[in-house]
Amino acid sequence: MSSHESEKRGIRLRLPATSANVGPGFDAVGLALSMWLTVEAHVSATWQIEATGRNAEVVGALDGNLMVDVYRSVIDEMGLESSCLRLRIHNEIPLGMGWGSSAAAICAGVALGAHFGALGWSDAEIVREAAEREGHPDNVAACWYGGFTASALTEKNGLATATFAGDPAWQMVLVMPGEGLATKKARAMLPESYSREDAVFNVQRAALLTAAFAQGRLDLLRIAMQDRIHQPFRMKACGLLEKLLPLGEEREIAGVALSGAGPSVLVVLAAETTLLGAETRLRQVVGEAVELVPVRIAGGVEREVL
Fold first, then answer.
1. 11 has which bridge partners?
2. Is the per-residue pLDDT at 181 higher than 80?
3. Do the beta carbons of residue 134 and residue 103 sit within 8 Å?
4. Closest residue by Cα to residue 85 from 14, 9, 140
5. In the structure, what pLDDT confidence band is assigned to residue 185 with cuts at 50, 70 and 90?
């Protein structure tokens, strides 16, 4: 199939939610989770968007649509004329909750630009482009490659990533409050510098966190998900974190961490803990006014040319 023929055909994308940082891995690691943004796109005479799922009104709007804006920008920057698209979108990822909704939208927009612009970009080129637009690579790399993904973006050598598929048996629950938190606001809460003690504390746990996912060591997460770089400073804006962090010391819970910049919290269950038992315990702590979403580690993007 020639590149010209390819750009005339539609494409279907399925991209996972992500939880970045995972405790100490600030701006360095992300974990793909089993909630999805699914996009089916075809060239059309006019723009059309049909959206279902979470935040459908926002996802289905043409103006201010992050995915559409990224698609257009990618095409424009290559000196090409962007085609109008007919998009069918089903979104399971809540917006502004620390579950990587913007990363999924950016990855989708870049992928649409690469496809309909017949750019012939590799996975690495798509992720690099998405990371530059996101400002940091943790969410977009995990979104595209899946599993537990560590990443680093440099001007000289580009984007370096390493992915571990993760254990599909691990059970997790995302605890979501009623209102979101803008990443920009969450970043403004962080200090300009840290003590050597706190830096070493996080380096040790980030290394242990990577080893835990590489070796399938659920027992390491109680220590490996501890953090002093971002979570303590975001506590005031993320009330659930303050309530849930102490659960990390209980036998039924393997680890607790802020999901991305918050305000949602990722709770990893111990091997012997049932989902029903975990939800009962979580309700005792946070009450009924929050949403509990069971998730597992997910694979990366799925693509199909139609």
1. 41, 305
2. no
3. yes
4. 9
5. confident
Where residue 93 falls (left for φ over 0; alpha for ψ -120 to 50; beta otherwise) is: beta
From the DSSP assignment, how many helices (H) and strands (E) are in the chain? 12, 11
Q: What is the rounded distance in angstroms from the CA atom of residue 143 to the CA atom of residue 254?
A: 23
d(CA 135, CA 122): 20
Q: How far is CA 83 from CA 74, 111, 265, 304, in A?
A: 12, 14, 39, 19
Q: What letter does residue 143 receive in the DSSP assignment?
A: H
Answer yes or no: is pLDDT of 292 > 80: yes
Distances (CA, A) of 110 to 62, 66, 81, 87, 96: 17, 11, 15, 15, 20
pLDDT digits (tens, 9 = 90+) for 43-65: 999 999 999 999 999 999 999 99
Mean pLDDT (the chain) is: 94
Residue 1 has pLDDT above 70, yes or no: no
The helix or strand, by DSSP H or E, that contains position 184, with its residue range, turns out to be helix 183-188
Alpha-carbon gap, residue 150 to 29, rounded angstroms? 4
Express as a percent the part of the chain with pLDDT over 70: 98
Using CA atoms, how far residue 305 sits from 42, 74, 97, 123, in Å, is: 10, 19, 31, 15
